[in-house]
Amino acid sequence: MFKRAIVRTPGKSMINGLTTAELGLPNYENALAQHAEYIKALKDCGLEVLVLGEDERYPDSTFIEDVALLTRDCAIITNPGAPSRRGETTEIKKVLRDYYTHIEEIREPGTVEAGDIMMVGSHFYIGLSERTNESGAQQVIEFLEKYGMSGSVIRLEKVLHLKTGVAYLEHNNLAAFGEFLSKKEFYKFHILEIGEDESYAANCIWVNNRVLIPQGYPKARETIKSAGYMIKEVDVSEFRKLDGGLSCLSLRF
Ligand code: CIR
Questions:
Q1: Each residue of 161-182: pLDDT tens digit?
Q2: Ligand 1, atom 1, residue with closest C-alpha
Q3: Checking CA distances to 240, which of 15, 49, 63, 247 falls within 20 to 30 Å?
Q4: What is the pLDDT of residues 108-130, one digit of tens each?
Q5: CA of 127: how far to CAs of 13, 21, 36, in Å?
Q6: What is the CATH number of the domain that holds 211?
Q7: pLDDT tens per residue across span 4-15
């Protein structure tokens, strides 16, 4: 179960965020409203939510998931593979000192964005992507092992981050689409297949026995609901324009 979440309000500079989506520029006012609804959804799941102020220096800083991996025993500050996102880690490190005694940091030449890391109990799957490299992944594994946890790597083919395409929903259930349907590392899970036409909904999050899914993906909603979950839909369409999804918008711990 999670107790807390940390989010960061998007800044106006979000329109300069990195993207491959070709969905147009986000509308800032709509993004703020959607962000507020997202916070409310997390609170409805019983989380205490720390809301950090906007940081205009970093257009992608609302995607706070990428800058730290929070585990039961340690926090690992990442080193984002996207150069424009590197500075985001300084601020989060200060914030996490209030919550963690043990804080580790990924060092060059390692790069990691925690959107590439999926927690399954005390094991962590780490996607090797354009943002997370071998050195970064090995550093994460060493830190995990130091605290009695474990990690393994998964090579990504198409998606930006591992959790762009796959989400562990506890109870051995894995929502997945595309390249993740056939990864042998995931054969042991019960796969909830998300169709290509609704692939954005594979970025969903389990929060204390509910599953938050993006609004507007009815087939994915039914698939996940039929696995026995209470579903809460949240509209994050403005963040989709920047390749971001539900998981990217918070650190949950
Ligand atoms: C980026 O390209 O870094 C941001 N525009 C989107 C980050 C999305 N984060 C995630 O999937 N964990």
A1: 999 999 999 999 999 999 999 9
A2: 18
A3: 49
A4: 999 999 999 999 999 999 999 99
A5: 28, 20, 30
A6: 3.75.10.10
A7: 999 999 999 999
Give the structural domain span for 110: 4-252
Peptide bond into 214 cis (omega under 30): no
State the residue for tokens 């989506």. Answer: 21
What is the domain count for the chain? 1
Expressed in angstroms and rounded, the spacing between residue 88 Cα and the centre of ligand 1 is 13
Active-site pick, 35, 45, 74, 161: 161
H/E stretch holding 207 reads strand 205-207
The pick from 243, 247, 252 for probing ligand 1's pocket by mutation, whose C-beta has the most ligand atoms within 8 angstroms, reads 243
> In this structure, which residue's CA is closest to atom 7 in ligand 1?
244
Q: Is 74 annotated as catalytic?
A: no
Average pLDDT over residues 53-58: 98
Supply 1's token pair. 């179960």
For the question of whether the overall pTM of this predicted structure is more than 0.90, the answer is: yes
Q: Pocket of ligand 1, candidates 16, 113, 205: which has the most ligand atoms within 8 Å of its Cβ, to mutate? A: 113
Closest among 89, 52, 53, 86 to 69, alpha carbons compared:
89
